[in-house]
Amino acid sequence: MSVHPNARAVVSKLTIPSPIKKYFSNDVWEIDLSTNTNPYGENFADYPDIMQEDLKNLYVNRAIKVKTKSEDIPHLTPNNLLFTVGLMEGIDILLRTFCEPNKDTICILHPAFSAYEHWGLIHNLEIKNVPLSGEHLNTFSLEQVIQTNPKMVFMCNPNNPIGTSLSSELIEKVCESIDGFVVVDEAYIEFADHPSSLVYLNKHKNLIVLRTLSKAWGLAGIRCGIIFADRLIINSLRYVQLPFGLSSPTQALVRKCLSNPEKTVTSWQRIKRDRQNMIDELSTLEAVEKVFNSQTNFIMVVLKDHQRVMKLLQDHKIQVLDCSASLPHAIRVSIGTEEQNQKFMEVMYMASLGG
Q1: CATH second-level architecture of 263-352?
Q2: Which fold has domain 9-260?
Q3: C-alpha 225: how far from its chain's center?
Q4: N or C: where does the chain have the smaller number of CB atoms within 10 Å of the terminal CB?
């Protein structure tokens, strides 16, 4: 199996894990004495499917087409995607496969998901942050990105923790302007109004798109992420990925969810409606300095008195994410149930009245 020319040199020396062979010459083995597993095991005695071709086709035909018009999606096959143990593993194996420790640089559009820097530090890579700019923090200097000479650029679209989106044109310009890989993290794409970067996957061979089932699909507990890329990139990642990481119970639950997605997909519209209502209400409150228009299932809010409002929320046993390290006086608020949203807003109204 071919290795991408920009993979680390060590990858070409590795052996790719092989599937457990269930068949031979179109027939099934009657007795399998090759795996050294306990023959008295019950439900999960067998190793999980390492290829997951049916599951990959299900994701392409159900999950993607829910969000993006069929005619806009390039022809994708199981060779274009890799399931990972959450989006976190996706970030990790991308860096392990393509970035040489103590040599390569990764560029991060900042503020950003903290895992990019976390794994970059673990792999001894040079990290260069390029700040997001503009009133809505939804643009950046292309020239600054180019100057970092990155092996890999990470960008959230929509952004975490800000919630706003980058233009497709700007992402394309990055793909065209650097020799390295452009990683677009679409963890929240199902809540966005803009199209997925998947529509450009065949056009730009250095484009990599990350997805997850943790957020919009409500499956954070099963740990399932997805990497979309050119088949040569995916091939290279398989040499490095931990074998059999996507467990049989996880695969079964993913299959169940994707086979009947209607209830989950309906909830996205409700979340988007509640998001806009909260943005409108928060924008009128005295305690609030700024509310970012969101393309996700959360809202970034800049407070006038951060410490007092955080204390008030804590007193009412409401937890939000303190984002003041990324943006002064900011909090990130997830869209919850109607009752949860109402209780949060009651405290925010209280804060605005001096409570």
Answers
A1: Alpha-Beta Complex (3.90)
A2: Aspartate Aminotransferase; domain 2 (3.40.640)
A3: 7
A4: N
